[in-house]
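*** Fold description ***
***
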Amino acid sequence: MRRMLRGLVCAICACLSMGLVACGGKNENTSGSITAAVTSYPDSLDPALAYSSDAWQSLWLVYMPLLTYVHAQGAAGSVLTPGAAASLPKISSDGRTYRLTLRRGLKYSDGRPVKASDFAHTIKRILNLESVGTSFFEKIEGADAYIKAGKPGGDLPGIATNDRTGAITIRLTEPDGSFANVLAMDYGGLVPSNTPFSNQTKHPPAGIGPFKLARVRVNRGYDLVKVPGFSLPGVPKPKLDRISITVIKNRGRATQDTIRNAVDYMSDPPAPDQIRTVRDRFEGKRYAEFVTNSTYFFFLNHRTPPFDKKAVREAVNYAVDERALVRVYGGLFQPSCNFLPPALQGFRKIAPCPYGDPGQPPNLARARRLIKQAGAQGTTVRVFGTDEPEPKAAAEYLADVLTQIGLKGKPAIISGEAYFGEVSNQKTRAQVGFANYFEDFPRPSNFFALVDGASISETNNLNFGNIDDPKINATLARANRNADVSAVAGDYAAVDRRLIDEAHLVPYGNRKLSVFFSDRINFEDCTVWHPVYNLDYASLCLK
């Protein structure tokens, strides 16, 4: 899943390698309204509950947490910066206490003053509403007891606030090096203390940010409207007055509407049969592609034969042709031998790849020998995938490959809505299948939770392959406690390498997404692709 300081952006633009920048320019038109098309309505417009990429792309500009991210492209956009807090947190030597102070004079979009106690209320809503985000905040002292009590107004002793001074103190049950990033998640976007303990999607509460939500049309769309007078050091003021988000489920129609300027921005990639046309006509003018902080891989369940044998897992790695998978994703894909995405600290490119160059043909002959060596010939393997076009095609491709190397691959296609619930349940005994992950926040620990033995559970098991490698577990237990990710980048690189050397899974690359605009948008001067939130709506302007 998945998700910016105006003065700083211009200072770093010359250093950015990606194609779009937002340093301003003489052609900027700092007013006006546009229409943006999305394929599906956000899962929620309540910051305590929202988890989809479309939701976060909007809500991070409406509900500011205590911390946020620099408004910039590339690695610069992954840098934490103060949001509603006056500065980054002061962390105790034992890593368990975080102290922050609210900025003075902060107001919500409806004019009400922001109070330190609003933060405690914000976190209580996450815990009480059984949000997907609950797990990120469970290390706060008393969180488990608060959840079990089920009383919205109950005590949460791990958070202490002072409305007079703006002081906020958070105590954890154990060190968590990623907790500053957790505080920057959209879940922690501050809301007033009288916000009800119920889903507020139909009537979103006031927030802190350059935009506010208006004209909410559930399942059809909503508007982002500029907040008059909004000004916060380091946070850009939006250039547009209004952005109307409209649901257009058919990507082919949305593509055509953008081509003919009936839509100003298309948030999803163009329809597969139209990508080449869009590239040929508009790349560099109205269209661009970007590598996301994501990882795509096939999980191999260590608890189910034949993938309990390393030789079989190696065979699959030798047999997969990343070039074929690039075609499956319509070219919107960057092959990789690493599990960790390249933009994160801790990434060290694995070269040469032990199973062959991802840009070259696979070694099917060696894969067949390994299957024979393992005595796995003829074993029936169900390959799990969703019914969405690309994941379905990827699963069907893998089933065919497994058959070619001596196994009997059979696709097991499940609806997209039910898929992860099925493969994360141990009773399913899913042997192998499609998996992907987009960052919740830009730290290696967020990705490595998918391969940490400590995360294995009977249901809602993110570790689909049940990887339980003692060396990986010990390294992650140590590295994840350190708030300074640069100090443990080598540990994370070592985990990445061991995943590949032990053939624990089959990583095959990183997803590309795209931006596609109408002729009205100032493509050259006013478009920032953010590594956490995708397109930064605050950067857009008209010609």
